[in-house]
Amino acid sequence: MPTLLESAVAVLATADPAVKAAASHSAAEAWRAEDLSLGAALPPDRPARPDRPLLLAPKEMPKRKAGGNAAKRVALLHALAHIELNAIDLAWDLIARFGTEEMPRAFFDDWVKVADEEALHFELLSARLQELGANYGDLPAHDGLWEAATVTAQDLLARLAIVPLVLEARGLDVTPATVADMQRAGDEATAALLERIYQDEIGHVAAGMRWFEHFAKAAGHDPQAHWQALLKQHFRGALKPPFNDTARAAAGMPAAYYTQ
Prior knowledge:
This protein is mainly alpha-helical. The chain has two domains: 117 residues, no CATH class; 115 residues, no CATH class. Helices cover 65% and strands 2% of the residues. It contains ten helices and two strands. α3 packs antiparallel against α4, α3 packs antiparallel against α6 and α4 packs antiparallel against α7. The longest helix has 31 residues. It is globular. The N and C termini lie far apart (48 Å).
């Protein structure tokens, strides 16, 4: 039986998206059943990726227009599926790169749950793409999403500060408007799917807040001040409103963190 960290690295080393998602579910199920010890394993610098989609630099990506026709919805869902595929790897990389025997089991419980949910989100988005006559891989995708992992590879607090508390929190800001766009376009199926993902992502940001504050306090930092310092060091640009204060508050993130 592989250990949790070996299972995490196995997910990272899997290129096929459907197999990656299935392996994520299997590892999560084994962990919940307490069939896995923690173990040790070294994660790769980058996760394996399939031959498709074509990965482009951010500046080379075609612009996605807002709207409700089928082609625009496919482009949106494809972009979101790509984000969720990266999110699977970000969760397992967090576990494999930073997990130690000294950490409480609750830390691993949270991030295994996140990885499991990200895999489900990818599967749901992929299925919706197929219902619209498309597949993940049909369109180019952003190759800058792993940059957050690269620049925070040596610092758990930086990883938590940037991935759940900036990137996933930004998803909370923009998703309600996207749901409303889908409803106006008469696409209730996509709207319901995005609402489902949105509710899960509140929990992911909450996990980020919980463990960022835990480890920041353990290191003798003021969590809010340290988060803001880490943003200046590791995040390009400034945080841009509008902010979804309601969803961020539900995730335990005070407005004082991001409005100064």
